């Protein structure tokens, strides 16, 4: 992975996390401005994903993005909204971490 890929991934993750947080805040308040903000952020995040797919390929970009979002949105859900995961759900998050570590191992040749 190149530094550009990691930079775009960081930006996309921040955008998607902000969108998910705005969505959750909308659910709690029914404020239409939060819903519109969330939709706009999701659009921007998806445009950033196009750049990531060009840099790292479809499989890597989507997989790393999905697992990073899984981890980080659970931190937000716990810290801001007080949500808790069951033991089975925590095991699933742990398996996601293992999957991401395995995907990010350097490979000899890129296909």
- Output the radius of gyration: 15 Å
What's the number of structural domains?
Answer: 1
List low-confidence stretches. none
DSSP strand tally: 0
The backbone outline, from C-alpha atoms, is flat
Q: What is the rounded distance between the termini?
A: 14 Å
Instruction: Indicate the proportion of strand residues.
Output: under 5%
Helix content: over 70%
Give the SSE string. HHHH
Q: Please state the average pLDDT score.
A: 88
Major sheet summary line: none
Number of H- or I-type helical stretches: 4
Structural class: mainly alpha
Question: Would you write up a description of this structure?
Answer:
With 111 residues, the chain is mainly alpha-helical. It has one domain. The chain is built from 4 helices and no strands. α1 (3-29) crosses α3 (58-79). The longest helix has 27 residues, at 3-29. The chain is flat.
């Amino acid at each position: 992975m190149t530094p550009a890929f990691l930079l775009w991934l960081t930006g996309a993750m921040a955008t998607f996390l902000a969108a998910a947080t705005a969505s959750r805040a909308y659910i709690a308040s029914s404020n239409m401005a939060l819903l519109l903000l969330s939709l706009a952020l999701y659009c921007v995040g998806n445009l950033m994903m196009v750049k990531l797919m060009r840099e790292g390929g479809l499989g890597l970009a989507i997989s790393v993005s999905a697992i990073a979002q899984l981890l980080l949105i659970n931190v937000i859900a716990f810290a801001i909204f007080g949500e808790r995961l069951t033991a089975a759900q925590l095991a699933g998050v742990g398996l996601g971490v293992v999957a991401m570590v395995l995907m990010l191992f350097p490979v000899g040749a890129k296909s």
